[in-house]
């Protein structure tokens, strides 16, 4: 990768990293908001519970406004830094407080409207009638009246800010009757971009915690130095990995080029047998790479690069030419067996490549009969490509090639498509064969696939036969040919040739005996 591409990739990684960082910060601050409001709600609820419990204890052991009652109220006031005054109200009149024995002052209408139509615990904010200071009032009902606890709103403000400000959040306490108007501060809720609310059903308050755009920006800026460091490190690692990957692919590509020039690619032969007697009737050619340094390399290590770079075309031509010489020796042993070579549909759609194939086949008489080309049903192609595919297949039929469809049953080819392409052989995918004996659903599917093959008048080949039970079931379905480790593994050409003459009328029992040995 050149330097401008590296710079562009680095910038792209940084941008993606920044976006991901913003998403992470937003998720984190949202969760922080939720945690903060939950903790704050627990703290407020616990504090009000304590006030209510202590007040209930005093009330249950005394008579409102008697000496013992007022002394108990005074002690509650003394013990709490938040409580400023506790008064007892009955019939809308202040009868007494923790500091005043007798009052008999009628409560102002502004206060009365806050709780006269409500039941249960009430919280509201107002100016104290006697002290003329802004305060938060907590109303606790009794059988005959109310205890009103005047709380220092400045302390409540500070308390909420202690919970929220440390996380760059904003919060407020409101009552349900005032339609969620903040009671403790002039919070700019019009600027809030995310907030959480908790409504206390017991004490009739609504707690709101959220954050503004400014808070969100500050959270991003606080996180930015760490995020930038991580993003830069990860970006450099990604670029290095891409360099390694690209260089590795280039290395494999150039190595494949060299291998093609030096004719290092050759075929292993896997026998295709008669399902009834095990007689070898053909063989599939499976590409191998005899590397000068690494020895025999399986297709899994290079075939993807070969296909993605188009080098598979050259490898296939090389294998075909090599097969021409090997097939001459096969014919000397058994003139009735065929060889099957893998191609791709994209090769056959390409008229120029088909011309090269035709040229090689025309050059070697051994390739003009008992040669099968097979491509997989997993490949897809458009209607236009289907026309090109049919033309290419026909050109190769004219020079003696027969056609097989590999992985039959796994793709999307409809019956009409299969009929129009006129395959000679259908190779049933190994996945259906492998589980056909143990799985009832696969058993049924394999039956249907075999029936379709018979309908199309094609020779059927079952791939991946590995056990005697599978071999027997394939034979019972009328599938005439099989291929798999039960019969033989892929082998070098010399081994295949030496064993070919011996593979005459071998029963399954004899195969089992041979495998046991």
UniProtKB/TrEMBL annotation:
Keyword Transmembrane: yes
UniProt keyword terms in alphabetical order: c-di-GMP, Cell membrane, Hydrolase, Membrane, Transmembrane, Transmembrane helix
Subcellular locations according to the entry: Cell membrane
GO molecular function, one term: cyclic-guanylate-specific phosphodiesterase activity
Gene3D superfamilies named in the record: EAL domain (3.20.20.450)
Membrane topology (UniProt): Multi-pass membrane protein
Pfam families found in the cross-reference section: CSS-motif, EAL
Transmembrane annotation, as ranges: 224-244
SMART domains assigned to the protein according to its UniProt record, in alphabetical order: EAL
Record's catalysed reaction(s): 3',3'-c-di-GMP + H2O = 5'-phosphoguanylyl(3'->5')guanosine + H(+)
GO cellular component: plasma membrane
Occurrences of domain EAL (ranges): 249-504
First-level EC class: hydrolase
EC code: 3.1.4.52
Main subcellular location of this protein, as a coarse class: membrane
InterPro entries in UniProt: CSS-motif_dom, Cyclic-di-GMP_PDE-like, EAL_dom, EAL_sf
PANTHER family named among the record's database cross-references: CYCLIC DI-GMP PHOSPHODIESTERASE PDED-RELATED, CYCLIC DI-GMP PHOSPHODIESTERASE PDEF
Protein name as it appears in the record: cyclic-guanylate-specific phosphodiesterase
Organism whose genome encodes this protein: Photobacterium frigidiphilum
């Amino acid at each position: 990768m050149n330097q401008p591409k590296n710079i562009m990739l680095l910038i792209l990684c940084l941008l993606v990293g920044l976006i991901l960082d913003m998403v992470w910060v937003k998720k984190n601050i949202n969760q922080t908001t939720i945690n903060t409001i939950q903790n704050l709600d627990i703290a407020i609820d616990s504090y009000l519970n304590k006030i209510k419990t202590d007040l209930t204890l005093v009330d249950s052991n005394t008579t409102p406004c008697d000496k013992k009652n007022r002394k108990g109220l005074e002690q509650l006031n003394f013990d709490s830094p938040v409580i400023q005054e506790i008064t007892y109200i009955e019939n809308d009149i202040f009868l007494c407080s923790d500091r005043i024995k007798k009052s008999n002052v009628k409560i102002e209408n502004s206060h009365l409207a806050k709780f006269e139509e409500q039941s249960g615990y009430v919280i509201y904010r107002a100016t104290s009638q006697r002290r003329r200071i802004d305060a938060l009032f907590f109303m606790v009902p009794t059988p005959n009246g109310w205890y009103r606890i005047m709380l220092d709103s400045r302390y409540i403000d500070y308390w909420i800010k202690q919970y929220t400000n440390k996380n760059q959040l904003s919060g407020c306490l409101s009552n349900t009757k005032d339609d969620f108007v903040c009671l403790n501060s002039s919070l700019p809720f019009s600027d809030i971009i995310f907030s959480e609310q908790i409504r206390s059903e017991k004490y009739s308050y609504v707690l709101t915690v959220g954050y503004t755009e400014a808070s969100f920006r500050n959270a991003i800026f606080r996180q930015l130095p760490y995020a930038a460091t991580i993003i830069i490190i990860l970006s450099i690692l990604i670029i290095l990995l891409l360099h390694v990957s690209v260089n590795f692919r280039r290395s494999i590509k150039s190595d494949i080029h060299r291998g093609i020039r030096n004719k290092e690619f050759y075929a292993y032969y896997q026998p295709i047998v008669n399902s009834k007697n095990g007689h070898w009737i053909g063989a599939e050619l499976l590409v191998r790479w005899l590397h000068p340094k690494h020895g025999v390399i399986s297709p899994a290590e290079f075939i993807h690069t070969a296909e993605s770079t188009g080098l598979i075309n050259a490898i296939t031509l090389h294998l075909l030419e090599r097969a021409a010489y090997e097939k001459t020796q096969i014919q000397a042993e058994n003139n009735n067996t065929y060889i099957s070579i893998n191609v791709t549909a994209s090769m056959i759609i390409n008229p120029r490549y088909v011309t090269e194939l035709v040229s090689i086949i025309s050059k070697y008489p051994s390739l003009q009969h008992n040669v099968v080309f097979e491509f997989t049903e997993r490949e897809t192609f458009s209607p236009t490509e289907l026309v090109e595919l049919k033309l290419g297949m026909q050109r190769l039929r004219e020079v003696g090639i027969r056609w097989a469809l590999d992985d039959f049953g796994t793709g999307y080819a409809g019956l009409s498509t299969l009929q129009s392409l006129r395959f000679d052989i259908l190779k049933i995918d190994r996945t259906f064969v492998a589980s056909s004996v143990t799985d009832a659903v696969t058993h049924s599917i394999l039956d249907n696939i075999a029936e379709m093959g018979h309908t199309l008048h094609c020779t059927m080949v079952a791939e991946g036969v590995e056990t005697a039970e599978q071999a027997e079931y394939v034979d019972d379905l009328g599938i005439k040919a099989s291929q798999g480790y039960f019969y033989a593994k892929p082998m070098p050409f010399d081994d295949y040739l030496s064993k070919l003459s011996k593979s005459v009328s071998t029963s399954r029992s004899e195969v089992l005996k041979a495998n046991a040995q």
